[in-house]
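Moderator note: this is an archived Q&A kept for reference. The question asked for a predicted structure of one protein chain; the sequence and the answer are reproduced below.
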Amino acid sequence: MFMTRRELDAARISDPGLRAAYRHCRRLNARHGRTYFLATRLLPVHRRPAVHALYGFARWADDIVDDPACARTPEARDRQLARLEGELASGLRTGRSSEPVVRAVADTARTYAIPHEHFADFMASMRDDLTVTDYATYEDLRSYMHGSAAVIGLQMMPVLGTVVPQEVAAPHAAALGIAFQLTNFLRDVGEDLDRGRVYLPADLLAAHGADRALLEWSRATGKPDRRIRAALEAAADLTRSVYRQARPGIDMLDPRARPCIRTAYTLYGGILDAIADDDYAVVQRRAVVPRRRRAAVALGGAARILTARLRPRPLRSPEHPLTAAPAHGSSSNGSQGYGS
């Protein structure tokens, strides 16, 4: 509770209802996103509420589509997504909402001048998940991931701050979002099969003699297959190539944001290592990064924070200001960085 209060005070969020909305988003982040929540703790405190709001909204929409505990029919899920979409559009337009998550994310969008089309693209991909159960090609999957993953990186960029024009950093931010999601797809192959979905592109599977039916057989019987393993290894190689595209963008961020994103980059990359260490058995079980490994990476991130704080601050310029937390309810420059 103290940390939550400190974060909200640092972000200059004073309205009691808005503070409650941000606290709700933080709880969603802590409950559902262990890796991401751990990395977020490395951000300067005044930036954390905005990240919790963005993640909380994405988590809420994803739960409407995927939560196995809910017995909603596809039609009911579609209606709930439509209600959320309408609430979001109204919240982004007016800055008000009775839904805590929407209120927090609308405040974040206004404070950091996040383009509204990123949220529209995200909701379009969530709708795809109601009807699309597999993807013929990697390009088809990339189109889906623009809304489900790339725009998350683009939403985050104004919150984190950049030391270059945003259009220079944007392709790397989008790539990092895609790399994280490809990692999740690999980790969750078995669970996605249980939901009736296959995110591994059919052309990648076919290149190694595998297909959806073979994946379903392996999941049902618990038996591995060398063709599946080869396809999964190829998918991991593809994912690592996207991480390489994303990596230069970390040094384009405000120095005080880099430890957080570098830690997330390393932790998610560690999931790929865990999958390989488990011989690509993700059809049968989820690969897990050991807690000791996560703690060691987080400790390294904390050390980088200390180093960043001891460095001289970069000179401010009109194009890439590095300023303190913006006042909530007012628009801020999209490339704003961190204060002390």
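Archived answer notes: The chain has 15 helices and no strands.
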